[in-house]
Amino acid sequence: MGIFSYMEKYDYEQLVICQDKQSGLKAVIAIHDTTLGPALGGTRMWTYASEEDAIEDALRLARGMTYKNAAAGLNLGGGKTVIIGDPKKDKNEEMFRAFGRYIQGLNGRYITAEDVGTTVEDMDIIYQETNYVTGISPAFGSSGNPSPVTAYGVYKGMKAAVKAAFGSDSLAGKTVAVQGVGNVAYHLCKHLHHEGAKLVVTDLNKEAVKRVVEEFQAKAVEIDDIYSVECDIYAPCALGATLNDQTIPKLKAKVIAGAANNQLKESRHGDILHAMGIIYAPDYVINAGGVINVADELEGYNRERALKKVEGVYDNIERVLSISERDGIPSYKAADRLAEERIARMRNSRSQFLQNEHHILTRRSRM
Fold first, then answer.
1. What is the pLDDT of residue 350?
2. Rounded to an integer, what distance in angstroms lies between the CA atom of residue 123 and that of residue 91?
3. How far apart are the C-alpha atoms of 288 and 294, rounded to whole Å?
4. Number of neighbours of residue 68 by Cβ within 10 angstroms
5. DSSP type of residue 33
6. Where is 234: in which H helix or E strand?
7. Is there a contact between 110 and 32 (Cβ–Cβ < 8 Å)?
8. Which residues are part of a known binding site?
9. What residues form DSSP beta bridges with 280?
10. Helix, strand, coil shares of the chain as percentages rounded to 5?
11. Taking each helix axis from N to C terminus, what angle separates 313-327 and 147-166, rounded to the nearest 10 degrees?
12. Which residues participate in catalysis according to the annotation?
């Protein structure tokens, strides 16, 4: 499928190709939808097999941000940037300064943040050229490391999913199998431990596992054993696509709620979970704490206010599961419906406003 055909199919607004010969910048900014407000989405730096792959990734990620921001209740649209290059050796100050100037040229249609392969320090450099960047250093009045806040949102969303499955949102005594114990999952484990949950964990990083075992009395298992653990909740917090044909039959959990992106390998795996009666908290709804947090920077960051907004992940998961039950559809489809209905309401509202303005202008011209 050609680029314009793809953009037309999924109703993208804009694709910006950026290059700066001196710094080596090669970037793609994709803006999917700005119905709810300016597009917000991070900048990813990655070594792509081809330029076409980079463009496809930017488009796919931008559309995902539209749904994520809409479902989170933010007045923001969806966008994303990918920079082609190796983040370990190709970065330089000139590159991010040049990129910042491209963002500034969009005049607020797109706001960026850190993502895979970029850091707070990179955002600080971009900030020298544009105000349309979030996730910068606290020294500039920003929020800093988003991991603890993302984890807090996942914790709240997990409680909402547990309430749907067990009738109470208490996690005391519940066994949670956590796949991956990186930055976000570590803070999630801290919340779970404090509430009295029992933790079973795994990770390729043995030091990270050791830390969680020692601090939170977790039990460690091998990587492939996490799926078959006798547990109440499976929390995927590492790689995506861990819910697939091989893993789903092994699951003992009644709830799936974790921080990882793109947890379903294919959409049909969400249908399978629904048919099995497993409560699945859609990833882009439950892990939205990070984007909710950086979005607060646009109002002048206030951590207490931001955390209060992140607590709304609980309500958003409840809404998704309510739509799932109401319409008899899997929760991943219900999440899409929640986002699409919100965008549609705003489009209709704006359309009605423009029609009214047109009628008023027409009447005045006849007077």
1. 67
2. 12
3. 10
4. 27
5. E
6. strand 233-236
7. no
8. 180-185
9. 256
10. 50, 15, 35
11. 40
12. 80
Q: How far apart are CA 166 and CA 278, in angstroms?
A: 11
Nearest in space to 258 (alpha carbons), one of 231, 239, 277: 239
Residue 141 pLDDT: 82
User: How many beta carbons lie within 10 A of that of residue 307, not counting itself?
Assistant: 18
Q: Collapse the DSSP code of 143 into the 3-class scheme (helix H, G, I; strand E, B; otherwise coil) and give the result.
A: coil
pLDDT at residue 358 in the model = 46
Write the CB contacts of 323 (distance below 8 Å, at least 6 apart in sequence). Answer: 329, 334, 337, 338
Q: Which tokens go with 113?
A: 């943040």
Provide the token pair at 240.
Answer: 């995506």
> Phi/psi zone of residue 56: left (φ > 0), alpha (ψ -120 to 50 degrees), beta?
alpha
**pLDDT tens-digit map of 86-116:** 999 999 999 999 999 999 999 999 999 999 8
From the annotation, which residues make up the binding site for NAD(+)? 180-185
Structure tokens at 51: 């330029």
Q: What is the pLDDT of residues 253-262, one digit of tens each?
A: 999 999 998 8
What residues contact 31, with CB distance under 8 A and at least 6 apart? 12, 13, 14, 15, 16, 39, 62, 77, 78, 79, 106, 109, 110
Residue 1: the pLDDT is: 78
Longest C-alpha distance within the chain, in Å? Answer: 80
Could you give the CA distance from residue 283 to residue 241 in angstroms, rounded to a whole number?
A: 11
Check residue 367 and give its pLDDT. Answer: 55
What is the sign, positive or negative, of the torsion defined by CA atoms of 60, 66, 71, 72? positive
Cβ contact 261:287 at 8 Å: yes
**Per-residue 3-state assignment (H helix, E strand, C coil) for 66-128:** HHHHHHCCCCCEEEEEEEECCCCCCCCHHHHHHHHHHHHHCCCCEEECECCCCCHHHHHHHHC
Distances (CA, A) of 126 to 93, 118, 120, 136, 148: 9, 11, 10, 9, 24
Counting as low any pLDDT under 50, the low residues of the chain are: 353, 358
Quote the pLDDT of residue 143: 85
